[in-house]
Amino acid sequence: MLQALIVALIYWALILLYRFGANGMADRPIFVGPVVGFVLGDITTGVLIGASLEVIYLGVVNVGGATSTDTLYATCMAVALSIMTGIPQEAAITLGIALGY
């Protein structure tokens, strides 16, 4: 339960970082994956899932007021699911993409 609360706080902190312009990369999976992996104690899984999701979301651009997906949420959930439950990384990435929409 404590780990889920920590992941929620990381998500909240990174949203604030992204919204207020302190870090324009704060919502990209290549940045979020290692951060969540580091906090949960498995940085290798965080890097691998973050890199995989970055390739998937590489061409996603929000035009105007339309938002297509929440890459920050998808990455947080994929890394947390993989590390905390032990499911394979491929399954965690699939679930993360589904949760991010």
How would you characterize the overall build of this protein?
The protein has five helices and no strands. It is mainly α and 101 residues long. The protein has one domain. The chain is globular. It starts with a helix and ends with a helix.
* Beta-strand share of residues: under 5%
Shape designation: globular
The biggest sheet, with number of strands, parallel, antiparallel or mixed sense and barrel status, is: none
Round the mean pLDDT to the nearest integer and report it: 87
> What is the helix content?
over 70%
Count of strand segments: 0
Low-confidence stretches: none
- Helical region count? 5
- Indicate how many domains the architecture comprises: 1
Separation of termini? 24 Å
Given helix and strand content, the structural type is mainly alpha
Order of helices and strands: HHHHH
Radius of gyration: 13 Å
Short note summarizing the structure:
This protein is mainly α and 101 residues long.
What would the keywords be for this entry?
101 residues, mainly alpha, 5 helices
SSE topology:
Layout: H1 2-19, H2 29-40, H3 43-56, H4 71-85, H5 89-100
